[in-house]
Amino acid sequence: MKKRFENKHQMLESFGYEFLVKCPNCSGKSKVISLGEHSPYITGITKRFLCLNCGLTKDYQPKKNCFNQTVISYGPTWNDGFINIGGAFDWYFGFPLYLQIPCCGHTLWAYNHEHLQYLRNYVEAELRENGAYYLSVESKLPFWMKAAKNRETVLKAIQKLE
């Protein structure tokens, strides 16, 4: 029986409660977490970087615009002063993700283990529901990751990250 993926219409923001990143000090496995609600849209919440290896910590409180809103940028590049969603880095400090690997001439990345498992479930499914919500994770995945011809290569890369 073919594996099936049922669209859950999860947005990338739903995985933003924890980022596994590389420490800028020792290159060890580190975390970026929220000291409150993890939604990037809520203002006044401090974000904390914690290195699990050398003990380095940093705090960050996102800047607000004149309307008391956080300023968010969507895309694969980092812009200082914004909350940056959609690249191989955490949203707040811009540190490179720990869970990233070259794959099919691109970079496969995940924010945390739950995000990686979600990607695995999507990629390994031979049957995927149509009608992905336009802001959902599965609608934003690049074509090379969705292509059946790359399925085995992508799954091997995910397995290495696990």
> Strand portion, in percent?
15-25%
Distance N to C terminus: 25 Å
DSSP helix fraction:
10-25%
Give the helix tally.
4
Silhouette: globular
Mean of residue pLDDT? 88
Q: Given the helix and strand composition, which structural class is it?
A: alpha/beta
Global Rg: 16 Å
Taking the sheet with the most strands, its summary is: 4 strands, antiparallel
Count of DSSP E strands? 10
Sheet with most strands: strand arrangement: 2-3-4-5
Oligomeric state of shown chains: single chain
Q: Uncertain spans, ≥5 residues at pLDDT below 50?
A: none
Task: Explain what you see.
This protein has a four-stranded antiparallel β-sheet with strand order 2-3-4-5, with no helix packed on it. It has a two-stranded parallel ribbon with strand order 1-10. The mean pLDDT is 88. It is an alpha/beta fold. The two termini are 25 Å apart. The protein has helices spanning 113-124, 137-140, 143-146, 151-161; strands at residues 4-5, 18-22, 29-34, 47-51, 57-60, 72-74, 83-85, 99-103, 106-110, 127-128. The relative contact order is 0.20. The longest helix has 12 residues, at 113-124.
